[in-house]
Amino acid sequence: MRYLALGDSYSIGEGVPEAGRWPMQLAVRLRREGVALDDPRIVATTGWTTDELAAAMDAATFEPPYDLVSLLIGVNNQYRGRSAEDYRREFGHMLKRAVGLAGDRAERTLVLSIPDWGVTPFAHGSGRDVRRIAQELDTYNAIAHEEASQHGVAFVDITGLSRQHPALLAEDGLHPSAAQYALWTEAALPVAKALLAG
């Protein structure tokens, strides 16, 4: 089976080896659980917003249907100060595209919440208002959860994990380490396994 992961730095695994990326870890874990799943195709780049991911997808060639499609996008919208209303519109559009790439199967599509980068040394050293970061990301994640629910798409909340383990970071002091991605993988594993069994 084939897996497509859509996103930004969190899906491409900025600062970690390829094997440390959470979509790679998820594929490995699923294979251990007896699911015949290829390594993921990852369409993601550090810094991408929802509209930049959409533009990259416009330029890419896909071979649907994919058996599993994951979507994790929006942190850079928040970082650049974009509105929640814009995020709702653009995320909803991205989610529909993700479902389409899964062969119009919402039950083969998975959304992960945005982690809280405000707990990182990078955020604390930048002079940014970390409470505001948390509040804005909570708003974004509530929107993503609502959109996923409306479309019948599974939602995995990893934001709490990012807040509980602020020290599990790559050398840049901002992006998660492979160890934190392993925690995300643990959270996503039973959900993805159930989706692929369905």
Question: How would you sum up this structure, described in words?
Answer:
The longest helix is centred in the last third of the chain and has 21 residues, at 130-150. This protein has a 5-stranded parallel sheet, sandwiched between helices. It has one domain: 3-Layer(aba) Sandwich (Rossmann fold). The protein has helices at residues 9-12, 22-32, 50-59, 75-79, 84-101, 121-126, 130-150, 159-164, 178-197; strands at residues 3-7, 41-44, 68-72, 109-112, 154-156. It is built from 9 helices and 5 strands; from the N terminus they run βααβαβααβααβαα. It starts with a strand and ends with a helix. It is globular. α2 (22-32) crosses α9 (178-197), α3 runs parallel beside α5 (84-101) and α5 crosses α7.
